[in-house]
Design goal:
Strand content: under 5%
Distance between the termini: 33 Å
Largest sheet: none
Order of helices and strands: HH
Number of domains: 1
Helix content: over 70%
Radius of gyration: 22 Å
Structural class: mainly alpha
Number of helices: 2
Length: 86
């Protein structure tokens, strides 16, 4: 009985650490994403001033498409590098 309780506590502790690590990583990722958003928005604002014939909305869609492509490539590359053998 005591051994079972100890195993359950250890299992809970390991799961808690795993989820806490994922939560903290997600929080840092969110902050980084917000900072990148501001940087990209600043670049768009500068580019909009240099190219007055292009509307802001098309530039935002263009930027979103490019960033999405880069993100997908990065996710695939990271997934391949960190793939765990089953």
């Amino acid at each position: 009985m005591v051994e079972r309780i100890i195993r359950e506590v250890i299992t809970f502790r390991n799961a808690f650490k795993k989820h806490l690590t994922e939560f903290i990583t997600g929080a840092f990722s969110f902050v980084a994403a917000l900072l990148w958003r501001d940087a990209i928005q600043g670049s768009l604002d500068s580019l909009q001033g240099a190219l007055p014939n292009i509307g802001l909305v098309p530039m935002q869609y263009f930027t979103a498409i490019i960033i999405t492509i880069v993100a997908v490539i990065a996710i695939v590359a990271i997934s391949r590098v960190l793939k765990v053998e089953q």
